[in-house]
Amino acid sequence: MNLNLVDVALKKRYEAIIDGSTAYIEYIKAQDKIYLTHTEVPKSMEGKGIGSALVLKVLEDIEKKNLALIPLCPFVALYLKRHPEWKKLVMKGINIGD
User: Fold this and answer.
1) Rounded to an integer, what distance in angstroms lies between the CA atom of residue 1 and that of residue 86?
2) Helices assigned H by DSSP within 1-98
3) For the chain, what is the domain count?
4) Fewer CB under 10 Å: which end of the chain, C or N?
């Protein structure tokens, strides 16, 4: 799925607009760390893989910016469990389970 991801710093979230609806992941940035706090996909789009595609794009951006990830959002944590290759971004000392 090809999402056009935008980092909307004023809203403190990554957004992707799909068919006129906005899916997003909220964050808190502090120095070289990013806390992903909440993922939201419009009800009409649930179950279509949009949330997972959104998480993937955000993780790619976090990697590019060389930030340490603290996944506070349960959806993001579940994605990391299912895609362990991305656990390399998680800040040392943070346990998301296996």
Assistant:
1) 18
2) 50-64, 74-82
3) 1
4) C
37: left (phi > 0), else alpha (psi -120 to 50), else beta?
A: alpha
Residue 14 within a domain: yes
Q: Is residue 34 part of a domain?
A: yes
Pairing mode, if any, of strands 33-40 and 68-71? parallel
Q: Whole domain around residue 43: which residue ranges?
A: 5-89
Give the predicted TM-score (pTM) of the model: 0.93
Distance CA 65, CA 91 (A): 14
- Tell whether 64 is covered by a domain: yes
